[in-house]
UniProtKB/TrEMBL annotation:
Species name: Pontibacter virosus
Keywords per UniProt: Membrane, Transmembrane, Transmembrane helix
Domain Uncharacterized protein YyaB-like PH: 62-136
Signal peptide region: none
Name of a matching Pfam family: bPH_4
Protein's name according to its UniProt entry: PH (Pleckstrin Homology) domain-containing protein
Organism lineage string: Bacteria, Pseudomonadati, Bacteroidota, Cytophagia, Cytophagales
Amino acid sequence: MMNQPKAYAAKRKGLIKFVLVGMLLLPLAIFLLDRQAFTERPYMLLPLLAPVGLIAWIYFGTAYWLEDGKLRYKSGPWKGVIEVEKITQIQEGKTMWVGMKPALARNGLVIRYNRFDEVYIAPENNQEVIADLLGINQNIQVVKQ
């Protein structure tokens, strides 16, 4: 029997908004400073717009959901699946600066699974995600930072 997937919104706060706005303004500013170069060679805008597309894809395409006993995540081109039964620890309120980080904000959840794997996610409501994961695997150790 297939369970209905439960989705969790990603927290979108902090630096990511400024990066997105800055990357949108940069091609616009360059275009306004030298319109002639871009009207003669419009393909020159492509290298400036490609990073904007990637950042926008990450910003609008970051999501988390529980489906069939698995925590799934995606953030732009990156996606992954974690079996909830293999989760050993969740650190709440911590920010991971290195490693797999499909998140847009700080103070999220560091999820440790398997033997050495970990991923950082930042849902809108940390407590809801923790409660749902504990409902599937009661052996998860929750550590508050």
